[in-house]
Amino acid sequence: MQTCFFAISGVLPRDVAIEKIKESIRKTYGKRGEPVVRQNFAAVDAALAHLHQISAPSQVTNTLDLPPVVPIGAPEFVQKVTAAIVAGRGDQLPVSAFPVDGTFPIGTTQWEKRNLAQDVPVWEPDLCIECGKCVLVCPHATIRAKVFDESELAAAPESFKHMPAKWRELPDKRYTIQVAVEDCTGCRLCVEVCPAKDKSNVSRKALNMNPQLPLRERERVNWNYFLKLPEVNRTAALTFGSVKNVQLLQPLFEFSGACAGCGETPYIKLLTQLFGDRAIIANATGCSSIYGGNLPTTPYTINGEGRGPAWSNSLFEDNAEFGLGMRLALDHQTAYAKDLVVRLREQVGEALVNSLLNADQTTDTGINIQRELVAVLKAKLEGALPNEARDLLSVADALVKKSVWIVGGDGWAYDIGYGGLDHVLASGQDVNILVLDTEVYSNTGGQASKSTPLGAVAKFAAGGKPNGKKDLGMSAIRYGNVYVAQVAMGANDTHTVKAFLEAEAHHGPSLIIAYSQCIAHGIDMAQGMHQQKLAVESGHWPLYRYIPKLAEENKNPFQLDSSDPKIPLKDYIYTEGRYRMLQQSDPDAARCLLEQAEKLVQRRWQQYKQLSATTL
């Protein structure tokens, strides 16, 4: 646009103006390398080459109409309030339009329909192997899978695609992958991770990017039909320890405002798929609070039974304690509910009391049975007059197991909130901590954190960070009773799923440190999962799990889950702008820091390897 302005306006002679623009480009982007400078030069030249005059018609000739801000089928509040805010007319709303207690409805991102992507993934059933990798990595939950009875197809749209389901546990079923094209951001992560290729044309996969506009109306109908198909039965013979099976679970975090290709949101989405109908989330301020609870729309939602995550945001410095408070409050409510059940044994009934107090809630089936028992209990107490019965009615839901998660980025976990995090780890309480590690303060402008690696360029580390990354996992391991896992979905997705399940099952503190690619890294975000793989293969990000219960069995609790480094560290770091910048601005410093970083990676790797080989 700047090029066009100066070419047309005549403020300066065209040649002089273009020369000045290119000087500015070199000054601004030179530190990112000559290829970036040349690409910007090419954009200027292409703008000049394609600049031409367009005559404005005397009347509107376009046949396309702007769609409504939210679909016609949206709830009344969304139509009257949310839509006005989304359209930028929020200041015109009267105070009376807002809820008196400030409570907004959840799951409202589904009505935004941003239509951001020019190209979206299109599914090819003839190539699909039903692995579920695309569903797992989608940052916005816009690509989903279901298995269903063939009878469900009676009312299916003509363009709705499906194929035989390849599950031994689910015979004679149909399988589909459906894309919400109006919510898709076009990040291409799903296409990049798809392993299924056409042998006669390797550029064609089971997912391929195609223009969105010609597909929009058709796929809107298909998506609405897809949502009506029944969700998988979590109490059936199917277990959810594999990526293939997890793809069938409904995400309760969808269509957030996170960046296209975000590395953080797939982990949060996975959390809600596995535990979302009983999850209570304490979220630290940061990216996850902006895309997680930023009005007017909310990505956390509920399932068909009306259950979903309870989510609340707290500050950088106290979020860990905030989550610990949730755990302690729940434990007190549960203890009080159990005490009341015992006191009201005669009114409740001996059999029901014993079932409630001795329920096995280690599986989805057991939790659902306990929910049914609590429903029976509530029915018996409904309309009860004694104070204790009314109290039990108010806390009865605490008898069902809850999963407390403390979520935040590395700026919170490694830096500003570390004191609180360490306090929570030392408490021994049953909480799960998820650190979305982008190795930089992503939300506040890309400042260096204690997680930023040696040699990486960031704000406050313009000459490359001079010291190494803090080893948060090893600090937690030293307690001995904390479950710790370092994961990278793009390097080993099965390992990631396993870590989440093990962490939640551990009776005590658990810590998952999840590698999350970020636009601050200076990468093509479509290659985010590939970058995760390079980080692991270079030894920069070893995959491991520390499982305290193995020590009780006289086994080594430290499990090193990735192999010896396969590639030099430089083959990973110099694919990212945050490292290349120093190569361009100060090659000698970059060379020196690379040598130090390589030694640090090798030293840490040997330390982990020695730990994994230790015999108790």
Architecture overview:
Helix 19 (493-505) links the parallel strand 12 (483-487) and strand 13 (510-515). Helices cover 41% and strands 12% of the residues. The protein has helices at 2-9, 14-29, 34-50, 76-86, 133-137, 189-193, 216-228, 243-246, 265-275, 287-293, 319-343, 345-348, 350-357, 364-381, 387-395, 410-416, 418-427, 472-477, 493-505, 528-537, 548-552, 569-573, 577-585, 587-613; strands spanning 119-123, 143-149, 163-164, 173-179, 197-198, 201-205, 207-211, 279-284, 310-314, 403-409, 432-437, 483-487, 510-515, 544-546, 558-560. It starts with a helix and ends with a helix. The chain has five domains: 2-50; 68-101, Pyruvate-ferredoxin Oxidoreductase, domain 4 (Irregular); 106-249, Alpha-Beta Plaits (2-Layer Sandwich); 334-399, no CATH class; 439-613, 3-Layer(aba) Sandwich (Rossmann fold). The strands form four sheets. Strands 9-8-10-11-13-12-14-15 form an eight-stranded mixed β-sheet, with helices on both faces. The mean pLDDT is 95. The chain is of the alpha/beta class and 616 residues long. The protein is globular and about 95 Å long.
